[in-house]
Design goal:
131 residues, single chain, 3 helices, 4 strands
Length: 131
Amino acid sequence: MRIASLLAAGMVLSACSSATVKSAPRPEPLPSSAVVATGPKQGPRKLEGVPPGHYPPPGECRLWHNGRPPGHQPPPAPCGSLIGHVPAGAFVLYNDAAWDSKYDWRGHERADRGSVPAIILRLMPDPGDGR
């Protein structure tokens, strides 16, 4: 009798498990200004540790070097003054977003027109120039 009960319970459980399988929920899309590390050549690096109040005022940019304390970062400056002066590995803080200088923002813009501000495209080193 006990074996029959176990077999019956197993059949009921297996029937229930196949009937209640649900697909995994889709992840929420990230905002276009999010900086996310997704691996080499797949996406920009993630910048962490920028304290509140360290992003530049509207219309200005700020270079940010990962691993350097906030008090040792360069001050905000007019974005145009940084053209040709963004070192590879730095981030550009602009409009409450961090833009990774190692990432190919020109290629990103070609794939998704209008997703990258024009000033960011002008500031970033050309990926083919070896910097």
